[in-house]
Amino acid sequence: MPAPSPVSTAVNTILAVGSNESGGDEPATAAAASFWLPREMSKAIPVQDQRWISNTLFNSGKLRPHLKLWYEPPVPALIYHQPPMPDRFFTHRLCGCPTTCGTYYLMVTETLRFSVCVVNFLSTSQTVRDQLDLPHEKMFRLILNHKYACDIRVIRLLRERILGNSPTRLVKQLKENHGEEWLNRLAHYLGECADFVARPSLFHVVCQEPPEPIDIPSSRWVLSVYGRDIFSRMDHIKASITSTFGSILKMDSTKKITKKLAGHAKGTALWVTYIGNEVGRIVKSVLTVQEGPALDTMVSGVMERYRQAAVPPPVLLYVDCGCCVSDGTSMLHSRFSDWPDLHIRLDIWHFMRRLAVGCTTDAHPLYPTLMGCLSACIFEWDARDLTLLRQAKRALLVQEGVPGLTDQMVDGKISKKELSLYCRRRTRGEVATITLIEQLLEKLGGNNGRDLMGVPLLEQVRMEHIWRVQRRHVKCIQDVPGVQLYTLTGTTTKSGILLTKYRCARGSTSLESFHFHLNSFIPGTSAHALNFQLYLLEGLNRWKQDRVAAAVTSKQASLLTYAGDVAHCVNTNSLKVFDRAFVPTFRPPAKYTGELLGVDYLLSQTGRPLPIIPDSEETENMLEDVDEGEEEEEDEGFEEPTVPILLLDDPGISISSLPCPSATLSPSQPAASSLVASSSLVASSSLAAASEQAAASAHAADSLHPYASSLTVAPSLPSLSAASSRPSASSQAPASIPQPGCG
Questions:
Q1: pTM score > 0.90 for this model?
Q2: Taking residues 55-63, what's their average pLDDT?
Q3: Domains and CATH numbers, the chain
């Protein structure tokens, strides 16, 4: 390392966490006359390791030349003619530069002391390692502080922020692994001692006590090391996040994790707002003091990113509020003024939830029926997709020997998952949707909307007011003509019928599940600003990589890695050497745009930016300031939400009793013909089925049964290409069927 001032060195010995063993409490003074170690090493090295390390590294008080990276300790003898000594049973490997490990091992490094500026650096600290090229930097497998070191393989176990993967669990697992290893060595030592004691002898045989096992560092320490690991990769993580684009964007906010922000920023953040794209990757995420004007800088940064990268602007934005105003231009249109052709649409699931507020309770037996009927009023299925799925299901039932098959029996065997995976949907249009919803509300507002106790499903006055307000938003939930909402993800053959798999990009409801994962990104119950920022950005980066893998239409590669910087280095060098990329699925990120992300955005609003200087005392103190508490018990509730696919919300409602207009179209019929059938009562058989299942409104079921209808379908949609979800000028408005949670 080039030094601007005179540098002195001191040998440092660090215990690296990878397994377990001893240090013992017995002093080394008894053996001090037979070997020599520097004072700092003798204080840090366990007693049983001091003799062999001294003989290996030093000769007459001087360091031996031609040092190696690894030194193996002496092993126990096969046959003992004298009482066994515990030293060889509990020794550790010695490392000058860590590569691989299986147990606790000792590492010798240097402390560089700059006498002029009075600054100390470990020779393997991040500041020194940053001056190396990436392949040589990655040879240093330890994350260091001035007392302990942690092998990177331990921290990798903590990177996956999933349910139950907490620092406490990791430390418990380490204690179990190290304890078992120590017991194995103790069993070996005591076995040799027992065999020796059992031999005939003139004198009483006395064996030395074995050393005690070394304590595992606390979960607080492990969490601080995890923060150092993220900190060392922060430049690449930020570049990866700001290199994300999309043609269909979705914007949402949550308050779920703002309570975890501690320290001087505690209580300043009210919202976590983020923008996702059509495959679920997060384009940008920030903490803000409020919504509205506080997001202007966030939006302008995203638009500038598109402009600098020469990426075509998105064509569609889904939101949960603020989609339109009665007069003038909405705030969202003004905020995205650089994209004049951007269509802003209201998420359909949020629209339906607004109408559901008019119900007396969501525990009413007919509440699932209402949601299913609303979905049927908004969507219609693609005829060709549905016909192929019915044919495949019928052929499968015939193979299973089911007798007397009817269309209703076949429809009843089709699951919601199969519908969402193999069939597409489209919105019916503003006029048809308004007509059908009004008929549904009218039907459920009478006696058909009461349970057996006479409790009505709808509060009539409230629902009338809600519908008057929300009616103008019906146009905001319609599909945009020419915008491709479906991507072909593969094909499968069922009973000789070739079915196509689709992925839908409609709606912002797919981000609702991200809320639950977002909370698990921050381990523990709270985190100060720097640690909160590190955990959040690391979680966003891994979430992005997972979504990239899920969006691949071909067979996924066997290599799973989140180390984008290493993959980029490998591809760069392999192209030079072998003229091919060894990680072909990896796409290197662009240069970090400088956009403020996460907590940085919040602190720019409050005027207290994060001081981040590698290896500085202030940064070290902030990394050490972690939450010691356990993971929140309520963390078990952070699971993937069950957002119903709204056409088949009630498992007891068969496809043949869906609340749709009764006309079933052929692919040759015009789309408008499917809407003519709206004169029949939409709620019909679905209400009957739900009433029978819930043992409610038996008389309503009898009255609605004559309206039983089959699935309403739309004309076949144009075929889709798996290559891109970007709309083409010649494409027609597609029907759309969301996956569970979409629209």
A1: no
A2: 83
A3: 7-221 (no CATH), 236-342+510-557+590-637 (3.30.420), 349-502+643-714 (no CATH)
